[in-house]
Amino acid sequence: MAHLVWNRSESAAVPLERLDRLLAPLGGMESVVRPGDTVLIKPNFVAPFPHAVTAFDILSAIINMVRNCGGKPIIGESSGFEFETETTFNILGAYSFARRHKVPLINFDRTEFATVALGHGINQKVRIPRLVLEADRLINVPKLKRHSLTKATVGVKNLFGLLSRKSRRKIHAWGLEKTIHALGERISCDLVVVDGSVVTTRAVFGEQTRLNLITASKSVHAVDVFCCQYLGLDYRDVEHIRRAVEMNPHRERFKVLEVLENCRLPEAAITFRSSDIPRWNDTAGKILHRRIYQLIYLIDIVYSRMNGGRSMIPSIHYYFGIRPFIRRAQCDACGKCAEVCPVNAIALPQRRIIRDRCMPVRCLKCLYVCPLDAIGIKGRDVDPSLMQQNTV
Fold this sequence. Notes:
alpha/beta, Rossmann fold, Alpha-Beta Plaits, 8-stranded mixed beta sheet, two-stranded antiparallel sheet, 16 strands
């Protein structure tokens, strides 16, 4: 097995020839895609923030390479549980991107699902898009990030976005790590290309570190092991990755025997260590954190059954996570925030934000345009970098 790490500092973009060079040691895209293949490309579009999602330039190069091999590319994704996928797509410009490249973009929240058994010690069934089962090839394009619950988001964790929201709720309640591992064994990836251009300390709202790298592998588990070093993590401390190694009889798959070109960690990665993540490093805190989340999702299952399928999770993230607010004394009702709000969540005469409209989006566009600093953000561990618009 070979990995190739390419330092993106060579260029701001990822043109076709560079990605082709990245995949050459793995046999090139032609070793993955055959003429006529339907190729499902799974990015990470977790939330309406460019720094937290898979870069469009990488997706563009992959689409072109698939087509050059005679394949038919399709992009499919569902955003994070507390975000609304359709609005996330629109804010990110994903639909515009898909139209420019003449490629279908599937909102998995609105697609047809099939029920599959997970296996691998998990006696549960989940619902995944039928397209996943029908596609000839699956190319997984995750965003390399930290995660407050699982510690790392790489290849296997990115498959979480394939599940129906009802299944995701159940997985959080059953036990997140062991189920993520089972999902990674159940759904096979033909190619994994990891976007490590910008890394965050959380899945969405966190400190950002520019690493300027991408890496690729045909083994989703191997790439997970390999990428942990760029997050300052020992893979054995990430439960779903450790499970993959310990429970696989062919452990040599996970040994990175060849690292070709630019294998040394960049300076940014060297400083991105566990000490940079102040919360939940201690064992007791981590266990308590997971148990609280597990209990919340268990309660949400009951709540959903009693309320026509609705979820209380977005409200919990809104009130205990990151959200904008208006400082009324400083606001002159100029209307700039209302102009940029994609969901009309600004009640200008009352100088307030409409909760139900902002809750599934929280894009913070209003924060970035206010000339009077009349809009602030509330939430746990507010990162000062959120005060500046990120257009990575």
